[in-house]
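User: I'm writing a short report section on ligand binding and want a predicted complex to refer to. Could you take this sequence and S-adenosylmethionine and write out the structure as tokens? A short remark afterwards would be nice.
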Amino acid sequence: MPQRVFFAGKGCGRRLVTPESENVSWTDIMEPSGDSGIKIERKNNQKGTTMELICPVCHKPLRIEEKRLVCQNHHSFDRAKSGYVNLLLSNGKHSKLPGDNKLMVNARRDFLQKGYYQPLAEALCNEAARCCQEAGWKTPDILDAGCGEGYYTNAVYQALSSLTKPRMVGIDISKFALNAAAKKNHEAEFLVGSVFHLPVADSACDLLFNLFAPYCGEEFLRVLKKDGIMVMVIPSRKHLWELKELVYDSPYENEVRDYKLSGFQLLRVRRLAEQITLTSREDIQNLFMMTPYYYKTSEENSRRLQGCGRLTTRIEFEILVYQKDGKETTT
Ligand SMILES: C[S@@+](CC[C@H](N)C(=O)[O-])C[C@H]1O[C@@H](n2cnc3c(N)ncnc32)[C@H](O)[C@@H]1O
Ligand SMILES: [Zn+2]
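Assistant: Sure. The structure tokens for the complex follow:
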């Protein structure tokens, strides 16, 4: 059997191990390339070498400056202190502060930085490395659409930095999320914007991630280059099953949607399954807050978690890799 490899170690990309040695279970429809003695080192790429961005007002190209983004029609967008830029126009918002609020962002940041979902980050890093190697991308233009607080954006950026010169953009509608993301990674460009109106030029992007975030096929196809790749992650049927058992009398399995997406060709699917043990009430509460159940669960049921200081639960993800279909599409 070919050896399956993925990165392990804090920050992603430190060493290569077999999944078996880390008690991770994989199901691959197609095996990873099995390559590579990839070494990871941090490069100080400067902002300003990013994929082509467009002005949300007039759609002309944006010039990236140290303190702002500006178009030829003098529409100017200042960089926040942490480094992100707000390109969301007020008429593009459905509320005053759209997207995840500060509480949700902090919960996700605190949970993810403990490393519980590191196997997923590693799998995404390997997927990105594989795409770059197979396509021969030297300066891949990568977009994380709905990037949240940038945990995976940063992991992929770091992992690719010794292989290539990644030009990374993270877009999210929540400025709280991007504030956290920009503090974590000073080289990637983080923009407040919506996946439904991306401030990105047509055919600007080699690789697009859409991880647990809203999907807009039409926009994603527009910004992807010919043969561009999209990587999505969705939860599998029994993701967080034991957490649900604790909260609900009769938990239900997640529905896994049809993999088919108009305008895309499915290249491969990988399933990642593991057990994690959360060792504090805070971690359990943070994980619960990251899920859609948090807002749907009655107070009485939510209280069942409060006395719980330790929880072993399975995590199960499906990593779907698509290629933009060469054919003309109607989305
Ligand atoms: C479950 S979080 C996932 C974040 C990140 N991809 C991750 O996996 O850690 C979903 C994210 O989608 C963002 N979001 C919601 N609606 C959006 C939109 N229309 N455009 C861009 N981002 C959006 C939220 O603010 C939130 O950060
Ligand atoms: Zn403009």
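A remark for your report: Confidence is low (pLDDT under 50) at residues 1-25, 28-45. The chain has eight helices and 14 strands.
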